[in-house]
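Q: I'm writing up a methods section and want to include an example of the input and output format. Could you take the sequence below and give the corresponding predicted structure tokens, formatted cleanly so I can copy it straight into the document?
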Amino acid sequence: MPKYFPVSASVACFRRASAMLALASISLAFPATHTCRPVADAFKIDGVLDDAGWQGLDTLRLLRNNDPAGGKPSAETKVLVAWSATRLYVAYIADGKNVKNTVTKHDDDGLYEQDVVELFLDPDGDGKNYFELEWNCLNTSLDFSFTSPLQGRDVAWAPKGMQSAVKVHGTANNPADTDTGMVVEISLPWEGFAAWSKSGLPPKAGDNLPLNFYRIIYSSPGVAELISWTSTGAPSFHMPEKFGSLVFSSQPVTSLLPERRAGIRTPAVGNRAARRADGKLYTPPVATRPGALKQPGAPNLWLFQSPAPAKAPASVTPVN
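A: Here is the clean output for your methods example:
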């Protein structure tokens, strides 16, 4: 056996070791990472998720926040996320038999005392200052910034140019019927966060964005089930050191295998297996089937687009 490795072998070993150290550092820095795919800015923010950009994305699933084993929550919550040079796109697909939250005032602290979905972001990755955004079934929103966990709250901050829409599958705030859930679709311009980013926004391929996705479900007043992507291990979401991270990719979904699908299962209908021309089975996203998301009955679609500068209206108006 030679006393020294050949140069080529040494280089190969060094590269493998460097890659292992890089992976180790990522795993130490973030409890979880998710590849965020690039898309074109061709979204109609309406809560329907039938735009081409949503199709084929990997799905994140939220688990019980305080369960060390990441236990199964009482209702499933899926998250889709994508990015462009101008915006971050996020969609929550939140199952539930009783979609409820009656708050209609923007930035009302009572919003999170009822059922909500939440997004926390730490653009500079320092584990100190961060942003909190929330939405309910009426598309009432909340947006705060913090200088450190639960300190220095700024209620005047708002993400300039934010758009959001909610599609309720059932009837919001009506316990007499059985719902199947709601979809919350969000578009966030990078310019609203750029001042707080060390590496600059929009991101570049390979950049990381620390964040966490949350949901709160109340089984009864004051009794909350906390659900998260990466667990904080405590009854609080305000722990940026526990955030996971988006890793921005330059590779769009369209460059992957054509059989790749997101497994989107909308609360209204769910997926149906279909057979391709070559005989192979695949599951098409529900949102691509015309009329699949049409819901009869009372108005259940709320639309909101923040003006510039971005402050949401005090209430929202149902749109048929």
